[in-house]
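Might I ask for a little of your time on a matter of protein folding? Here, with my thanks, is the record as I have it:
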Amino acid sequence: MTDFDAIDRNILHELTANARITNLALAERVGLSPSACLRRVQDLERIGVIKGYRAILDQAALGISFTAYIAVGLSRHTKSEQQDFERAIDAAPEVRECHNVTGTIEYLLRVEVKDLASYKRFHTDVLGALPQVSTLTSYIVMGSPKDERA
C-alpha cells in the first residue's frame, strides 16, 4: 500500500493528534464504520506506516527545563568512527534525537537535561570526551512555539 487516499490521510491526522482516540470515535471522525476503520488502522500498522504509539511527557514536570541542539563535527569521516560515535550517543540518555545530516557537520543532536549545569557536565564529560568529535556548536532552545514531535 503506497497510495493513501483521503481517508487514510485523515486517519493518520487524527491518530497523530490523539493516538488514544477510541476506534469508534476515530471511525466517526473519518466517516467509516468501526470495522472498516479498524481494518485500515491495522493495515497502516502492518505495512509500517504507523510504527508505534507514544505518550507526550511534560518535561518541566519531570524536572527537565533545558533543551539544546548540538551540531557535531567528526574528526574523521570513516564508517567505524561514525559507528563508534553513534554507539556512544545511543548510550547517553540526555540525547533525545540524533540525526546524521549533510553539510558542514555530521550530526545534529537534541539534548534535554535538568539545567545549564547539567548541560555543561554533559557537554564536557560526555561529548567532549569522545575521540571522534572535532567540533561542537550548541543552540539553546529559548522557546518552542510549534513542536509536533510525538
Q: What stands out?
A: The radius of gyration is 20 Å.
